[in-house]
Design goal:
Number of strands: 7
Order of helices and strands: EHEHEHEHEEHHE
CATH topology: Rossmann fold
Shape: globular
Radius of gyration: 16 Å
CATH architecture: 3-Layer(aba) Sandwich
Distance between the termini: 25 Å
Strand order of the largest sheet: 3-2-1-4-5-7-6
CATH class: Alpha Beta
Structural class: alpha/beta
Largest sheet: 7 strands, mixed
Number of domains: 1
Oligomer: single chain
Strand content: 15-25%
Helix content: 25-40%
């Protein structure tokens, strides 16, 4: 298989990859890019961990992987709700993934998300992706996650302000189907983390770029030679 680009999606939790980048992942696959999704932490429910829920979440993530048809995944198995306690414990494993895989393009969560794990993953990723060490990474984009990004306070340093749009008209149905894998995370509309919520956001982002459906990103880095 000829590979156009190596793409890394860094997802704090299983389901973030679908909510934030699901359509774009499917598009990368169609364009013959090689996609690796790195799941950073195991989710705690009601602030508690259980082996059963962790196993279920991983099975759901693998089912979503099959639907999106991307190539590789890795679970770092860090602890939900603990990532911001000592950032170096997040930086090191993410750094190892980046330097082993050597991606051309990386997607990371938005810095202002109303979720401490998302913010910690953003900070850790930015350290691991600094240009003078990870110079092979040419493009870095921050993505939004329904029920997290839009819940942040309306201050300049926390608002998601997209300046890059990906047409996902061809992939909106596969994105919605992939999210059906995460029944525990799925909610009924008008909750944003719903199938209808996914479609409405994709339509809104599409309208911003004269498209029917789109995923939107903030450009963190873009190097062209």
């Amino acid at each position: 298989m000829s590979i156009a680009n190596k793409v890394l999606v860094i997802a704090p939790h299983p389901d973030d990859e679908v909510l934030g980048v699901g359509g774009t992942i499917a598009k990368h696959v169609k364009n013959e890019d090689f996609v690796l999704v790195c799941f950073v932490c195991n989710r705690a429910y009601s602030h508690r961990y259980s082996e059963e829920s962790i196993r279920e979440d991983k099975e759901n993530a693998l089912n979503a992987k099959r639907i999106l048809s991307y190539h590789q995944h890795i679970f770092l198995d860090l602890k939900d709700e603990r990532l911001d306690e000592r950032l170096i414990n997040v930086i090191v494993p993410i750094e190892k993934v980046i330097f082993k895989f050597k991606p051309d393009i990386v997607y990371i969560p938005h810095k202002g998300d109303n979720n401490q794990d998302h913010r910690a993953v953003f900070k850790a990723s930015m350290v691991a992706l600094r240009t003078f060490s990870a110079s092979f990474v040419k493009e870095v984009f921050a993505y939004e996650v329904l029920s997290s990004t839009e819940q942040s306070a309306s201050f300049v340093d926390s608002i998601f302000m997209p300046n890059y749009y990906v047409d996902i008209k061809e992939f909106i149905e596969v994105k919605k189907l992939a999210f059906e894998s995460y029944q525990r995370e799925k909610r009924e509309f008008p909750h944003p983390r719903s199938i209808k919520g996914i479609e409405i956001l994709a339509m809104k982002r599409g309208m911003e770029a004269n498209l029917e459906y789109a995923e939107a990103f903030e450009v963190v880095r873009m190097i062209k030679k």
